[in-house]
Predict the 3D structure of the following.
Amino acid sequence: LAASAKKMTEIEYYIVDVFTSQKYGGNQLAVFVDFENIVSTENMLKIARELNFPEITFIKKSHNNIKFDVRIFTPEYEVPFAGHPSLGTAFIISKYLLPTPKDSITLNLKHSNISIDLTSTNDVDNSDFIMEQAEPEFITTYKHQEIANGLNIELDILNIQKPIEEITTGLPYIIIPVISLEKINQIKLDSRKVVEFLTHKGKYKTNSKTGLSTSLFFVTEETFEKPNSFNTRMFCLENENLIEDAATGSANGCFLAYLLKNKSPEISAIVEQGFQMKRKSYINLDGNLKNDKYSLKIGGKVVDLSKGKWKV
């Protein structure tokens, strides 16, 4: 009987918080090490649903400890690129999978190869992880009234001096400037209304070119904490429900491109996100625009929480 019992395969996984130096802040991530390629696409999605974190990653292959094939899943679908999962995965590779940490590693993601630099290889836990994002694509500009009507929010919360733009560096976001911290704190959105608006614009997963739904990124120049330059909130649709994200590297890359295009060709800033959710996150933006080329660097710290075995 024992011999015929199917052996349970286990793979290692780690849980980290990204864009924070404090436990239980930032954005949650689980990183699975699957060099044997045991877990199918279907099961990767099932694991993402089981954990119900904003995203999880699977490290599928190491190319001479320099490049790593990585796949990223939300509880809804696989995504071609994401920010906090890239940084958190680079942290796990640097701390646990390499003989010694390197200054830079590359993740082969669906959308593009992302290189991630470490500021401190001799102290991974206190290092900043900095990713360079792909060239931005400026998809479309929206009228303020169109956004107010479409999302069912008051026009007077929007900063009408600043454009509303949809931008992608792998995942699409509509960047929506808000006049004050008070107003950004009060934002309440109706999932059905947002689905309707995105569907009408051809930006919902069922009718968008990429099969992905566009997300919403609200930004204001008023902050909770003095050293920070912007307060932001990100809302995305998951299985028809709007959820808020505590720290979004991909959205901040798009926001950095927005600032370089609309504000100044050189930007260095700290963004606070997740404050409204009681998960304080700090995202470092560094970028420049030269000869129509965007350099978009998004960085932050990672906190190690837990490791375990997952029965596959």
